[in-house]
């Protein structure tokens, strides 16, 4: 049976690859303890001559052994030398995740032999399973694969009773084979396709050369048309019938590439079996009598945009809003429990539904701030002076207090603050009692503004003119060194305790 050497593209061999089963454990033949067995003469014409391969023939060597018999009188007779065969088993060591059934795949190169039979022993935690590895002629530049067949099962599946694996390959002098690696594959992940090279994927190159940005086949390129024809005929298992519609087409023949029939006026489709958009009544196909030129293909009834009605498709249907001549209307989606009289209509422009008292939202599907338990929407009972904008939880009625406010209704200032106010962002003002106490309350006294500039002066300057309501300073820099501070000095009227009851 002919064997593949490589896949050629434009006269040149291209790299091929094998698939890797999920969960497969790989063991390379050149791993410990076989480093000294790496072949210095790889097989000819392989794709990568730098990979580590082990020639199984190198595990068998001819060794000269000399023996010198000793006679009864303890004298040595003439020594004899003979050549014997020294066999070094080729051992591989590895692990599998857990005990179970596995398939052993061996990757090899064998371009000179028709076939070999190699005894193999596999040990799992000391339990031995014997089998045969039977590779066949392999001239492929990326190598070949074959499985080990085990005596106990008669097939390529073996049950491993442990996780520590040792595989022993016995040498042979009947031919040369170069071994690359071994895969231990869980039986449920094995497929015979893993023994063959994967097809060379040229789809990316075809798409780049033959398909435009709109994913349409480029016209006028013979290679692209022939490639597409090959793909479609292979997929369809041959050419397809034209099947041109007898009422909609001008003939029963179609384009060789694409299969489009020759349609009558205002008829479309590969087989000429439908009216073009804007026409109805196949096969006569008359124009639609509609504002937007769109109608039912069979009856000619006008097709309005979504949620639009009217002979001219000019208004929203009930319970819809936001008319647009192209995209139609949107549904109001009013909540039946939140609207007045269960009226599910809404404002034709804004879409706002007619909500019950204390119910809010465009769809009337939530309570307004300060109310809870939709659709009943009862008052939370919070003091709005001390609450945040949300006022309370819409489900539990818990009040949302400002930073300096406490209490179930957010109606008390926390210790160290006073004067609950809706205008204060934190609710209450922080006390300032000169360190004497942290507790305070709003005063009942009144505030008055008193203005008097008499007696004001500067600490370092005498050029001050004092008027009843103003103070003028002349030439501040005169007599003052650079960097020296200047202070206002208040008169006695502004000093001392000034809080008094009026």
UniProtKB/TrEMBL annotation:
GO process terms (BP): animal organ morphogenesis; axon guidance; basement membrane assembly; cell migration; substrate adhesion-dependent cell spreading; tissue development
Superkingdom assignment: Eukaryota
The entry's keywords: Basement membrane, Disulfide bond, Extracellular matrix, Glycoprotein, Laminin EGF-like domain, Repeat, Secreted, Signal
Domain Laminin EGF-like per the UniProt entry, residue ranges: 242-287, 288-331, 332-379, 380-430
InterPro entries named among the record's database cross-references: Laminin/Netrin_ECM, LE_dom
Cellular localisation: Secreted, Extracellular space, Extracellular matrix, Basement membrane
SMART domains registered for this protein in UniProt: EGF_Lam
GO cellular component: laminin complex
Covalent S-S links between cysteines: 242-254, 244-261, 263-272, 304-313, 355-364, 380-392, 382-399, 401-410
Pfam family, one: EGF_laminin
CDD domains: EGF_Lam (cd00055)
Main localisation: secreted
PANTHER family documented for this protein: LAMININ SUBUNIT ALPHA 5, NETRIN/LAMININ-RELATED
Entry protein name: Laminin EGF-like domain-containing protein
Species name: Biomphalaria glabrata
Taxonomy of the source species: Eukaryota, Metazoa, Spiralia, Lophotrochozoa, Mollusca
């Amino acid at each position: 049976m002919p064997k593949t050497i490589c896949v050629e593209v434009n006269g040149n061999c291209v790299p091929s690859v094998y698939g890797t089963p999920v969960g497969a454990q790989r063991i390379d033949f050149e791993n410990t303890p076989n480093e000294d067995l790496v072949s210095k003469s790889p097989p000819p014409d392989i794709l990568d001559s730098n990979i580590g391969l082990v020639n199984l023939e190198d595990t068998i060597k001819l060794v000269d052994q000399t023996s010198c018999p000793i006679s009864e009188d303890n004298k040595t007779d003439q020594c004899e030398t003979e050549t014997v065969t020294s066999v070094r088993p080729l051992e591989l060591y590895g692990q599998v995740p857990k005990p179970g059934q596995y398939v052993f795949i061996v990757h090899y190169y064998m371009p000179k032999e028709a076939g070999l039979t190699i005894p193999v022993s596999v040990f799992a935690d000391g339990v031995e399973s014997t089998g045969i590895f039977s590779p066949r002629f392999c001239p492929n530049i990326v190598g070949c694969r074959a499985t080990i067949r085990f005596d106990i099962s008669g097939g390529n599946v073996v049950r491993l009773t442990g996780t520590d694996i040792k595989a022993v390959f016995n040498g042979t002098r009947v031919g040369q084979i170069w071994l690359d690696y071994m895969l231990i594959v869980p039986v449920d992940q094995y497929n015979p396709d893993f023994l063959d090279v994967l097809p060379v994927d040229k789809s990316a190159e075809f798409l780049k050369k033959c398909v435009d940005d709109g994913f349409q086949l480029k016209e006028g390129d013979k290679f692209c048309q022939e490639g597409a024809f090959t793909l479609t005929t292979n997929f369809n298992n041959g050419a397809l019938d034209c099947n041109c519609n007898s009422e909609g087409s001008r003939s029963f023949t179609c384009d060789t590439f694409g299969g489009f029939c020759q349609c009558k006026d205002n008829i479309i489709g590969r087989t000429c079996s439908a009216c073009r958009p804007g026409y109805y009544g196949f096969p006569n196909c008359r124009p639609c009598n509609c504002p937007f030129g769109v109608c039912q293909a069979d009856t000619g009834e006008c097709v309005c945009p979504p949620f639009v009605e009217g002979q001219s498709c000019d208004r929203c249907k009930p319970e819809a809003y936001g008319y647009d001549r192209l995209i139609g209307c949107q549904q109001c989606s009013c909540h039946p429990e939140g609207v007045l009289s269960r009226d599910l209509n809404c404002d034709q422009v804004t879409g706002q539904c007619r909500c019950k008292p204390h119910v809010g939202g465009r769809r009337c599907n939530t309570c307004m701030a300060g109310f809870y338990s939709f659709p009943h929407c009862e008052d939370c009972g919070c003091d709005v002076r001390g609450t945040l904008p949300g006022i309370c939880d819409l489900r539990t009625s818990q009040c949302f207090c400002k930073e300096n406010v406490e209490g179930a209704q957010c109606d008390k200032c926390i210790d160290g603050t006073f004067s609950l106010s809706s205008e204060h962002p934190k609710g209450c003002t922080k006390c300032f009692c000169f360190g004497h106490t942290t507790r305070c309350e709003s005063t009942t006294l009144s505030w008055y503004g008193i203005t008097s500039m008499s007696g004001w002066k500067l600490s370092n300057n005498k050029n001050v003119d004092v008027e009843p309501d103003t103070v003028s300073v002349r030439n501040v820099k005169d007599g003052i060194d650079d960097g020296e501070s200047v202070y206002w000095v208040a008169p006695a009227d502004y000093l001392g305790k000034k809080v008094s009851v009026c």
